[in-house]
Amino acid sequence: MSTEDIPEPDRAPGAPHPRETSEIFGQNAASSNFLDTFNTGRLHHGWLITGPRGVGKATLAWKIAKFLLATPPDDGGMFTPAPPETLDISPDHPVSSRLLALSEPSLFLLRRGWDDKARPARLKKVITVDEVRKLRNFFALSAPGGGRRVVIIDAADEMNMNAANALLKILEEPPENAVLLLVCHQPMRLLPTIRSRCRELRLAPLGPNDLAQALAQAGNETAPEHQTALDELAAGSVGEAMTLAELGGPAIYGDLIRMLAKSPDYDRPAALALANAAAGVKAAPRYELTVRLILLMLARFARHGAGHRPKNEAAAGEFALLERLSPNVQAARKWAALEQNLSARASHGRAVNLDPAALILDMIFRINDTAARKAA
User: Which CATH number fits domain 3-202: 3.40.630.10, 3.40.50.300, 3.40.50.720, 2.60.120.620?
Assistant: First the structure.
């Protein structure tokens, strides 16, 4: 496979790559935090950019990288420019063009590599130590004009243990004028020593308006009748909202609610149809989304019973189902326990290549059985 044909592991399906995204929405606090640190001359060498998936962590990392590479270090001269008021860099700037083409010599992108030895060849499941070792050659070269060098790691929690230890050595003795930006979805999966050597930029889920603007920027025009469902189901994640929109997530969730509307007398033909639609290799993305939506539905059951009623219905009839199946804290505990159990079963099913249709049917049967025991 040619280099151009290798899929990018840090690009969400159906979405532009973060380096191609011109604006980041809803993360002014994190952007201002970094800019304030930069302007006070306390620029740290390691930054841990955290938050839920799909809220703009990688987009912010690329924005910071462009800013750092296009803004020369202060040499202490008489004509030092005024402190920048924004991280924005003109798209006409040479650094912007080079980053877009992945040809900027002062940037190193560390991500999962391509495994030519696998059959069939595919992206590696983790970032290996071999990928991290390439940083040695990068830092061995002088930065053009004596400027900064920037490393983007996307995602840091995908490193295996050997890779993490190799990165730790670099963070312990960082090269001069080097900044490492670690995009991280699950910080607790990182070594504590890595976390302690980085400053954290925490990104929050997007509100409805910011989410709508981010989707529009990505070229995703959401039907008005699905906007409320996307707001509820995506939980402020642009990446998840795009997946939901592309794969018909609101319709799948609506099918789940209608299927269980009379549970424990659930709609068995509808369950079979839902399971069969997720079967087969080509349906793998739909299968993954269906599993996530089932687990999300159970989480909404649990939160409702615990007194945290959703702001809006994610599907017609959801409020009535929540009131009936999860009216109190006792019911909430049962649904929360089932969500954890089914999440573990789903992970095991992926590991042993369990038939997707069988797994989904099993999940629905267990939900219906829990509803039956509650009714009894």
Answer: 3.40.50.300
Count Cβ atoms within 10 A of the Cβ of residue 24 and give its class: 0-12 exposed, 13-18 middle, 19 or more buried: buried
3-state DSSP call for residue 184? strand
Identify the sign of the CA torsion 197, 199, 201, 202: positive
Q: Report, in this order, helix, strand and coil percent for the chain, each rounded to 5.
A: 55, 10, 35
- The reported pTM is 0.84
Mean pLDDT rounded to a whole number for the chain: 91
| CB proximity list for 63: less than 8 A, separation 6 or greater | 24, 31, 87, 88
Reported confidence tier of residue 223, pLDDT bands at 50, 70, 90: low
DSSP 295-306: HHHHHHHHHHHT
Residue 255 · residue 317 · CB < 8 Å: no
**What pLDDT digit, counting tens, does each position of 127-167 carry?**
999 999 999 889 988 777 668 999 999 999 999 999 999 99
Element holding 275 (H helix, E strand): helix 268-277
Q: What is residue 310's predicted lDDT score, i.e. its pLDDT? A: 92
Average pLDDT over residues 341-346: 94
Helices 356-375, 329-351: inter-axial angle, 10-degree rounding: 160
For residue 169, the cross-strand partners are none
φ and ψ at residue 178, rounded to 5 degrees = -110, 140
Q: What does the chain come to in residues?
A: 376
Tell me the C-alpha distance between 270 and 259, whole Å. 6
> Residue 74: which pLDDT band, with cuts at 50, 70 and 90?
low
State the pLDDT at residue 147: 82
Instruction: Compute the distance between CA of residue 140 and CA of residue 290 in angstroms, rounded to an integer.
Output: 47
Domain boundary assignment for the chain: 3-202, 248-375
Describe the crossing of helices 268-277 and 249-259 by its angle, rounded to 10 degrees.
150
| Strand 46-50 relative to strand 178-184, pairing | parallel
Question: What is the dihedral sign for C-alpha 69, 71, 11, 32?
Answer: positive
